[in-house]
Amino acid sequence: MKVTSLDFYFDYLSPFAFFAWRDIGQLCEKYQLELRAHPVVFGKLLDHWGQLGPAEIIPKRDWVSRYCLRYAVLHGFEYNPPRFHPFNPLPALRLSLKEVSGAQQLAVIDALFHAGWTRGEDLGDLDNLIAILERAGIDADGLDEKITEQAVKDTLAGETSSAIARGVFGVPTMIVGDQLFWGNDQFEHIGLLLEGKDPLDSQKHKSLKSRLRKIDRKKINQQGINVGDA
Length: 230
Description:
Number of domains: 1
Helix content: 40-55%
CATH topology: Glutaredoxin
Strand order of the largest sheet: 2-1-3-4
CATH superfamily: Glutaredoxin
C-alpha cells in the first residue's frame, strides 16, 4: 500500500521535537507526503507510560543541554532555548491545533518552534505567543479567546489520548503507515522504509518481542534485593 501521509506528534517542551520539525517538511516534500501535525501533552504521555521527563533527571538534563548545543553547531543554526523551561505548554499546543489555526496550522507551529528554540522566547505566556504569531504575519485575531473554549481543550486532550492509543510514548514521534518512529534521528530509517529498502527483519523482530522476561525491576525492589546481592 502506498504511503501518502506522515503523522507528526510533538510538544514544544522538547528540543528534539524542534530538531525534527526543522527537517520534517523537506522529508514530506521529497516523498510527496501530507504532513499531519498533532500537538500532544508530553506530560500526559509520560504519566501514562510511567516515565520521567529528561528535565526531571538531573544528569540527563545536563546531557540533553550538551547534546543540543553540539547538535545546533553541527547543523548550523542558532540554539537559544525558551526563557523558562519547563513551562506551561498548553496555550501553545492549543493554538497549534488545526481546529484553532486552520490553514495557518503549519505556519503557527513553525513560528512558535523557532521563537522558542532559536530566540529564547517565553512559550508559556499567551500574550507573547500571540505577539510571536503577529510578528510572523499570521492572523491571530481572536485566537487567545478561542483556546479557552472547552471544545478546544477537549480536542487537545483527544489528540493526546489518540496518540497514546497508537503507542506514542514520547516526542517527537512520526508514524508512517503502520510504523512508529521516535526521535529526531529517525529520518534515514523513514526514508529507507518509504523507498522499499527497510532493513528490518520482521520475523526476527517478532521473535525478539516474544522473549520472556526473566527478572522484573519492581519485583526486585519489593523484595529488597541490593545490587551487591546479585
